[in-house]
Amino acid sequence: MADSSFRLVRLGIGLTSYLFPQAGVSVGFQAQIDALSARVTALEAAVGTSDVYACPMSVSVGQIVYETSADEAIDLANASNLTKAPAIGVVFMKPTPTTCIIKQIGRMSGFSGLPPDQSELFLDTTDGSFTSTAPAGAGKIVQPIGLVVGTDSIEFHIDPDNYTIRA
Which of 114, 143, 157, 159 has the highest CB neighbour count under 10 A? Predict the structure, then answer.
């Protein structure tokens, strides 16, 4: 119960009627709190661990990003440039033109032109992009980022520690 209350307070939902219930209200309200808490937990799992980062206006939702040397800032990742890798996530949301929320794990839809279902995807040599062909050539970074699921969705699993550099 404390966990449910904490999450609801974080969301800014007042708990006055829960903490000081009127006669006959508390039982039904507890069920509503439990249901809302379950939805919050599901949303947190769907978004994954996410943080708000500063980003250039040119960065878009669905692009792959790396963390720059500036504190809490990201930019478009690239498998050809060691200073623009490894990827740390995919842009999930842009609350403002210069802030991005990223996720490392989870499904996103709305993509077009994807390779066949279950194709593995890698960080590409084009800024912010992904490809179904691992980059070739000396010095290129090979970093898996996810799998195609269906015709317009990707199941992302971006691990900044899981990459190799071609010799």
Answer: 143
Rounded to the nearest 5 degrees, what angle is found at the Cα of 157, between the Cα atoms of 7 and 101?
50
Q: Which of 99, 87, 154 is nearest to 123 (CA)?
A: 87
Crossing angle of helices 2-10 and 26-47, rounded to 10°: 70
Residues contacting residue 11 through CB under 8 Å, at least 6 positions apart: 40
Task: Give mean pLDDT, residues 42-56.
Answer: 69
Residue ranges of E strands in the chain: 52-54, 64-67, 74-76, 89-96, 99-103, 105-109, 120-123, 130-131, 141-142, 144-149, 153-157, 164-165
- What tokens does 139 get? 């010095």
Of 28 and 100, the one with more pLDDT: 100
pTM for this predicted structure? 0.71
CB 143 within 8 Å of CB 162: yes
Question: Could you give the CA distance from residue 89 to residue 86 in angstroms, rounded to a whole number?
Answer: 9
pLDDT band at 26 (very low <50, low <70, confident <90, very high): low
Polymer length in residues for the chain: 167
Going by their DSSP bridges, the two strands 89-96 and 64-67 should be labelled as antiparallel
Percentage of the chain surpassing pLDDT 70?
Answer: 70
